[in-house]
Specification:
Shape: elongated
Distance between the termini: 39 Å
Oligomer: single chain
Number of strands: 3
Largest sheet: 3 strands, antiparallel
Radius of gyration: 17 Å
Order of helices and strands: HEHHEEHH
CATH class of the largest domain: Mainly Alpha
Structural class: mainly alpha
Length: 134
């Protein structure tokens, strides 16, 4: 079996399952739309194809409950998540800090830049960072 390239979709699915513990496919789809602010909308077919590939690779497991499939991350999936984010997360954190700092400086002069949605997402980010003392 050839080694599959790590994709943003796979990482996002794993992150959602780490946070939610168990979800069915359509709920995962709705969470992806929420987290990407509907700016990126992978097709439902792409979602299910990716989920099936991830089940075959044992990154997630699929359970039948009330005639629907629920997905749960496996320990192999957690390892995959950590392994594939170790370096990128350090890069992303530095980039995000720089961009946010610049964005907030601009918002001091142009208050309309900070929309309600951006304020809410920044509040959520702050809560996550505080929760883990980062």
């Amino acid at each position: 079996m050839r080694k599959r390239r790590c994709s943003f979709l796979r990482i996002l699915i794993l992150a959602i399952l780490i946070n939610e513990r168990k979800l069915h496919g359509y709920s995962l789809y709705k969470k992806i739309l929420y987290h990407t602010h509907m700016k990126w909308k992978p097709s439902i077919g792409t979602i299910y194809r990716t989920l099936n590939e991830m089940v075959k690779e044992e990154l997630i497991s699929k359970h039948t409950e009330n005639r629907r499939y629920d997905y749960i991350i496996t320990s192999k999936g957690v390892e995959y998540f950590i392994e594939n984010l170790r370096v990128p997360i350090a890069k992303m954190a530095g980039i995000l800090a720089t961009v946010l700092e610049a964005y907030l400086k601009v918002s001091e002069e142009e208050p309309y830049v900070l929309t309600k949605d951006i304020r809410e997402r920044l509040r959520t980010l702050k809560e996550v960072l505080q929760k883990y003392n980062l």
